[in-house]
Amino acid sequence: MTTPAPVLTVNGIEVIYNHVILVLKGVSLQLGEGQIAAILGGNGAGKTTTLRAISNLLKGERGEVTKGSIELRGERIENLTPADLVKRGVVQVMEGRHCFAHLTIEENLLTGAYTRKDKGEIAANLDKVYTYFPRLKTRRTSQAAYTSGGEQQMCAIGRALMANPSVVLLDEPSMGLAPQIVEEVFEIVKDLNQKEKVSFLIAEQNTNMALRYANYGYIMESGRIVMDGAADDLRNNEDVKEFYLGMGGGQRKSFRDVKSYKRRKRWLA
Ligand SMILES: Nc1ncnc2c1ncn2[C@@H]1O[C@H](COP(=O)(O)OP(=O)(O)OP(=O)(O)O)[C@@H](O)[C@H]1O
Ligand SMILES: [Mg+2]
Protein backbone atom coordinates (compact mmCIF):
# COMPACT_ATOMS: atom_id res chain seq x y z
CA MET A 1 0.00 0.00 0.00
CA THR A 2 1.38 3.41 -0.91
CA THR A 3 0.94 6.31 1.46
CA PRO A 4 -1.28 9.02 -0.07
CA ALA A 5 0.24 12.47 -0.60
CA PRO A 6 -0.69 14.86 2.20
CA VAL A 7 -3.58 17.21 1.49
CA LEU A 8 -2.98 19.09 4.74
CA THR A 9 0.32 19.48 6.55
CA VAL A 10 0.68 21.22 9.88
CA ASN A 11 4.34 21.94 10.74
CA GLY A 12 5.20 22.69 14.36
CA ILE A 13 2.54 25.29 15.05
CA GLU A 14 2.30 27.27 18.24
CA VAL A 15 -0.91 29.06 19.15
CA ILE A 16 -1.19 31.80 21.73
CA TYR A 17 -4.48 33.21 23.08
CA ASN A 18 -4.74 36.79 24.35
CA HIS A 19 -1.04 37.37 23.58
CA VAL A 20 0.06 35.32 26.59
CA ILE A 21 -1.55 31.90 26.90
CA LEU A 22 0.50 29.34 24.99
CA VAL A 23 -1.95 26.57 24.09
CA LEU A 24 -0.41 24.68 21.16
CA LYS A 25 3.24 23.92 21.79
CA GLY A 26 4.56 22.77 18.44
CA VAL A 27 1.89 20.62 16.81
CA SER A 28 2.69 18.72 13.61
CA LEU A 29 0.33 16.47 11.74
CA GLN A 30 -0.67 15.38 8.27
CA LEU A 31 -3.89 14.43 6.58
CA GLY A 32 -3.43 12.17 3.55
CA GLU A 33 -5.44 12.85 0.38
CA GLY A 34 -8.68 10.87 0.58
CA GLN A 35 -8.03 9.80 4.18
CA ILE A 36 -9.69 10.19 7.56
CA ALA A 37 -7.37 11.32 10.36
CA ALA A 38 -8.43 11.76 13.98
CA ILE A 39 -7.12 14.11 16.64
CA LEU A 40 -7.89 12.49 19.98
CA GLY A 41 -7.62 13.72 23.53
CA GLY A 42 -9.54 14.92 26.57
CA ASN A 43 -10.99 18.30 27.50
CA GLY A 44 -8.67 21.20 26.84
CA ALA A 45 -6.05 19.14 25.01
CA GLY A 46 -6.03 21.58 22.08
CA LYS A 47 -8.07 19.73 19.44
CA THR A 48 -10.44 22.59 18.61
CA THR A 49 -7.58 25.08 18.65
CA THR A 50 -5.73 22.94 16.08
CA LEU A 51 -8.76 22.85 13.75
CA ARG A 52 -9.35 26.58 14.18
CA ALA A 53 -5.70 27.28 13.39
CA ILE A 54 -6.08 25.39 10.10
CA SER A 55 -9.33 27.10 9.10
CA ASN A 56 -8.02 30.49 10.30
CA LEU A 57 -10.87 30.93 12.78
CA LEU A 58 -8.70 31.86 15.78
CA LYS A 59 -8.96 35.63 15.43
CA GLY A 60 -12.49 35.80 16.82
CA GLU A 61 -11.14 33.98 19.89
CA ARG A 62 -8.19 36.37 20.24
CA GLY A 63 -5.85 33.58 19.26
CA GLU A 64 -2.99 33.53 16.75
CA VAL A 65 -0.53 31.14 15.21
CA THR A 66 2.87 32.44 16.33
CA LYS A 67 5.15 29.72 14.96
CA GLY A 68 5.15 27.02 12.32
CA SER A 69 3.33 26.68 9.03
CA ILE A 70 0.22 25.10 7.51
CA GLU A 71 0.08 23.80 3.95
CA LEU A 72 -2.74 22.73 1.66
CA ARG A 73 -1.34 20.46 -1.05
CA GLY A 74 2.07 22.02 -0.58
CA GLU A 75 0.90 25.67 -0.57
CA ARG A 76 1.11 27.83 2.53
CA ILE A 77 -2.36 28.83 3.76
CA GLU A 78 -1.83 30.56 7.15
CA ASN A 79 -2.59 33.95 5.66
CA LEU A 80 -5.76 33.04 3.79
CA THR A 81 -9.08 34.25 5.16
CA PRO A 82 -11.67 31.66 6.24
CA ALA A 83 -13.73 32.56 3.13
CA ASP A 84 -10.71 31.98 0.85
CA LEU A 85 -10.16 28.64 2.52
CA VAL A 86 -13.76 27.67 1.87
CA LYS A 87 -13.27 28.57 -1.80
CA ARG A 88 -10.19 26.36 -1.84
CA GLY A 89 -12.26 23.50 -0.48
CA VAL A 90 -11.45 23.56 3.25
CA VAL A 91 -14.47 23.85 5.54
CA GLN A 92 -14.93 23.42 9.26
CA VAL A 93 -17.91 21.97 11.09
CA MET A 94 -17.90 23.64 14.47
CA GLU A 95 -18.09 21.93 17.81
CA GLY A 96 -21.61 22.09 19.24
CA ARG A 97 -23.26 22.03 15.79
CA HIS A 98 -24.34 25.65 15.51
CA CYS A 99 -27.33 25.34 13.22
CA PHE A 100 -29.42 28.47 12.87
CA ALA A 101 -32.27 27.56 15.20
CA HIS A 102 -34.94 29.70 13.52
CA LEU A 103 -34.17 28.51 9.99
CA THR A 104 -35.47 25.30 8.45
CA ILE A 105 -33.09 22.44 7.75
CA GLU A 106 -33.11 23.32 4.05
CA GLU A 107 -32.46 27.01 4.70
CA ASN A 108 -29.58 26.01 6.97
CA LEU A 109 -28.12 23.82 4.23
CA LEU A 110 -28.40 26.61 1.68
CA THR A 111 -26.40 29.00 3.90
CA GLY A 112 -23.46 26.63 3.29
CA ALA A 113 -23.45 27.56 -0.39
CA TYR A 114 -22.74 31.24 0.28
CA THR A 115 -19.47 31.26 -1.67
CA ARG A 116 -21.17 29.83 -4.77
CA LYS A 117 -23.31 31.41 -7.45
CA ASP A 118 -24.50 28.75 -9.91
CA LYS A 119 -28.10 27.94 -8.92
CA GLY A 120 -28.15 24.67 -10.87
CA GLU A 121 -25.01 23.43 -9.16
CA ILE A 122 -26.33 24.43 -5.77
CA ALA A 123 -29.58 22.52 -6.37
CA ALA A 124 -27.62 19.45 -7.49
CA ASN A 125 -25.46 19.70 -4.41
CA LEU A 126 -28.52 19.91 -2.18
CA ASP A 127 -29.88 16.74 -3.78
CA LYS A 128 -26.57 15.04 -3.15
CA VAL A 129 -26.63 16.05 0.52
CA TYR A 130 -30.13 14.57 0.78
CA THR A 131 -28.99 11.26 -0.70
CA TYR A 132 -26.32 10.97 2.02
CA PHE A 133 -28.62 12.28 4.74
CA PRO A 134 -32.12 10.98 4.00
CA ARG A 135 -33.18 12.11 7.47
CA LEU A 136 -32.51 15.70 6.46
CA LYS A 137 -34.70 15.32 3.41
CA THR A 138 -37.57 14.14 5.61
CA ARG A 139 -37.02 17.11 7.90
CA ARG A 140 -36.24 19.69 5.21
CA THR A 141 -39.08 22.05 6.17
CA SER A 142 -38.67 21.66 9.95
CA GLN A 143 -37.19 24.49 11.93
CA ALA A 144 -33.74 23.35 13.13
CA ALA A 145 -34.65 24.19 16.73
CA TYR A 146 -37.24 21.41 16.69
CA THR A 147 -35.01 18.68 15.26
CA SER A 148 -33.01 16.13 17.25
CA GLY A 149 -29.36 16.51 18.21
CA GLY A 150 -28.41 13.91 15.61
CA GLU A 151 -30.33 15.73 12.89
CA GLN A 152 -28.66 18.99 13.87
CA GLN A 153 -25.22 17.37 13.63
CA MET A 154 -26.16 16.00 10.21
CA CYS A 155 -27.41 19.45 9.23
CA ALA A 156 -24.09 20.99 10.28
CA ILE A 157 -22.13 18.46 8.20
CA GLY A 158 -24.57 18.80 5.30
CA ARG A 159 -24.20 22.56 5.36
CA ALA A 160 -20.40 22.19 5.15
CA LEU A 161 -20.86 19.89 2.15
CA MET A 162 -22.83 22.62 0.37
CA ALA A 163 -19.51 24.40 -0.19
CA ASN A 164 -18.39 21.37 -2.19
CA PRO A 165 -15.26 20.84 -0.08
CA SER A 166 -12.38 18.44 -0.56
CA VAL A 167 -11.33 18.71 3.10
CA VAL A 168 -13.71 18.80 6.07
CA LEU A 169 -12.52 19.65 9.57
CA LEU A 170 -15.04 18.02 11.86
CA ASP A 171 -15.06 19.04 15.52
CA GLU A 172 -16.50 16.48 17.98
CA PRO A 173 -19.30 15.06 15.86
CA SER A 174 -20.22 12.65 18.67
CA MET A 175 -20.80 15.34 21.28
CA GLY A 176 -24.01 14.75 23.22
CA LEU A 177 -25.34 12.08 20.86
CA ALA A 178 -26.58 8.57 21.67
CA PRO A 179 -24.15 5.81 20.57
CA GLN A 180 -26.29 4.55 17.67
CA ILE A 181 -26.66 8.08 16.29
CA VAL A 182 -22.90 8.61 16.57
CA GLU A 183 -22.45 5.43 14.58
CA GLU A 184 -24.95 6.62 11.97
CA VAL A 185 -23.05 9.92 11.59
CA PHE A 186 -19.67 8.15 11.28
CA GLU A 187 -21.10 5.73 8.69
CA ILE A 188 -22.15 8.70 6.56
CA VAL A 189 -18.70 10.25 6.99
CA LYS A 190 -17.17 6.98 5.79
CA ASP A 191 -19.50 6.95 2.78
CA LEU A 192 -18.63 10.54 1.87
CA ASN A 193 -14.96 9.71 2.24
CA GLN A 194 -15.16 6.67 0.01
CA LYS A 195 -17.62 7.84 -2.64
CA GLU A 196 -16.99 11.59 -2.81
CA LYS A 197 -13.28 11.39 -1.91
CA VAL A 198 -13.67 14.00 0.82
CA SER A 199 -10.75 13.97 3.28
CA PHE A 200 -11.70 14.40 6.95
CA LEU A 201 -9.74 15.65 9.93
CA ILE A 202 -11.87 14.79 12.95
CA ALA A 203 -11.35 16.02 16.52
CA GLU A 204 -12.89 13.55 18.96
CA GLN A 205 -12.99 12.59 22.61
CA ASN A 206 -14.68 9.36 21.56
CA THR A 207 -11.44 7.53 20.82
CA ASN A 208 -13.05 4.18 20.21
CA MET A 209 -15.48 5.38 17.56
CA ALA A 210 -12.96 7.67 15.86
CA LEU A 211 -10.31 4.95 15.58
CA ARG A 212 -12.85 2.57 14.06
CA TYR A 213 -13.36 4.93 11.14
CA ALA A 214 -10.04 6.79 10.81
CA ASN A 215 -6.98 5.65 8.89
CA TYR A 216 -4.61 7.47 11.20
CA GLY A 217 -4.75 8.95 14.70
CA TYR A 218 -2.98 11.63 16.70
CA ILE A 219 -3.28 11.67 20.47
CA MET A 220 -3.04 15.09 21.99
CA GLU A 221 -2.39 16.22 25.55
CA SER A 222 -1.79 19.74 26.85
CA GLY A 223 -1.15 21.19 23.42
CA ARG A 224 1.21 18.49 22.15
CA ILE A 225 0.87 15.36 20.08
CA VAL A 226 2.05 12.62 22.44
CA MET A 227 1.52 9.66 20.16
CA ASP A 228 0.49 8.97 16.60
CA GLY A 229 0.05 5.96 14.41
CA ALA A 230 -2.15 3.99 12.05
CA ALA A 231 -5.63 3.70 13.62
CA ASP A 232 -5.39 -0.09 13.92
CA ASP A 233 -2.01 0.12 15.67
CA LEU A 234 -3.37 2.67 18.13
CA ARG A 235 -6.42 0.52 18.83
CA ASN A 236 -4.17 -2.37 19.76
CA ASN A 237 -1.69 -0.32 21.74
CA GLU A 238 -1.74 -1.19 25.45
CA ASP A 239 -1.43 2.40 26.67
CA VAL A 240 -4.16 3.63 24.34
CA LYS A 241 -6.39 0.80 25.49
CA GLU A 242 -5.78 1.63 29.11
CA PHE A 243 -6.01 5.40 29.01
CA TYR A 244 -8.35 6.12 26.13
CA LEU A 245 -10.43 3.08 25.41
CA GLY A 246 -11.27 2.37 29.04
CA MET A 247 -10.14 -1.25 28.91
CA GLY A 248 -7.48 -1.15 31.59
CA GLY A 249 -9.84 -1.19 34.56
CA GLY A 250 -7.80 1.55 36.19
CA GLN A 251 -8.44 5.26 36.29
CA ARG A 252 -7.54 7.13 33.15
CA LYS A 253 -4.23 8.91 33.64
CA SER A 254 -2.14 11.16 31.50
CA PHE A 255 -0.01 9.63 28.82
CA ARG A 256 2.82 11.65 30.17
CA ASP A 257 2.72 9.56 33.35
CA VAL A 258 3.70 6.55 31.31
CA LYS A 259 7.46 6.44 31.22
CA SER A 260 7.43 4.06 28.33
CA TYR A 261 5.27 6.05 25.98
CA LYS A 262 8.20 7.42 24.03
CA ARG A 263 9.66 3.95 23.64
CA ARG A 264 6.31 2.59 22.51
CA LYS A 265 5.96 5.46 20.13
CA ARG A 266 9.24 4.41 18.52
CA TRP A 267 7.91 0.89 18.16
CA LEU A 268 4.79 2.15 16.49
CA ALA A 269 6.67 4.38 14.06
N1 LIG B 1 -10.48 31.85 23.46
C1 LIG B 1 -9.64 31.30 24.35
N2 LIG B 1 -8.92 32.09 25.18
C2 LIG B 1 -8.05 31.55 26.08
N3 LIG B 1 -7.83 30.21 26.21
C3 LIG B 1 -8.52 29.39 25.42
C4 LIG B 1 -9.46 29.88 24.44
N4 LIG B 1 -9.99 28.82 23.79
C5 LIG B 1 -9.41 27.73 24.34
N5 LIG B 1 -8.54 28.05 25.30
C6 LIG B 1 -7.72 27.14 26.10
O1 LIG B 1 -6.94 26.37 25.22
C7 LIG B 1 -6.82 25.05 25.66
C8 LIG B 1 -7.24 24.10 24.54
O2 LIG B 1 -8.63 24.28 24.27
P1 LIG B 1 -9.36 23.54 23.07
O3 LIG B 1 -10.74 24.09 23.04
O4 LIG B 1 -8.53 23.64 21.87
O5 LIG B 1 -9.35 22.04 23.61
P2 LIG B 1 -10.15 20.76 23.09
O6 LIG B 1 -9.16 19.66 22.98
O7 LIG B 1 -10.93 21.10 21.89
O8 LIG B 1 -11.12 20.45 24.32
P3 LIG B 1 -12.64 19.88 24.33
O9 LIG B 1 -12.53 18.40 24.11
O10 LIG B 1 -13.13 20.23 25.67
O11 LIG B 1 -13.40 20.56 23.23
C9 LIG B 1 -7.67 24.93 26.92
O12 LIG B 1 -6.82 25.03 28.02
C10 LIG B 1 -8.57 26.13 26.83
O13 LIG B 1 -8.92 26.58 28.11
MG1 LIG C 1 -12.91 21.08 21.43
UniProtKB/TrEMBL annotation:
SUPFAM superfamilies reported in the protein's UniProt record: P-loop containing nucleoside triphosphate hydrolases
Family membership: Belongs to the ABC transporter superfamily.
Domain ABC transporter: 8-247
Keyword Aminoacyl-tRNA synthetase tagged: no
An MF annotation (GO) of this entry: ATP hydrolysis activity
One Gene Ontology term from the biological process aspect of the record: L-amino acid transport
Listed PROSITE patterns: ABC_TRANSPORTER_2
Protein species of origin: Tepidimonas ignava
This protein's name: Amino acid transport ATP-binding protein LivF
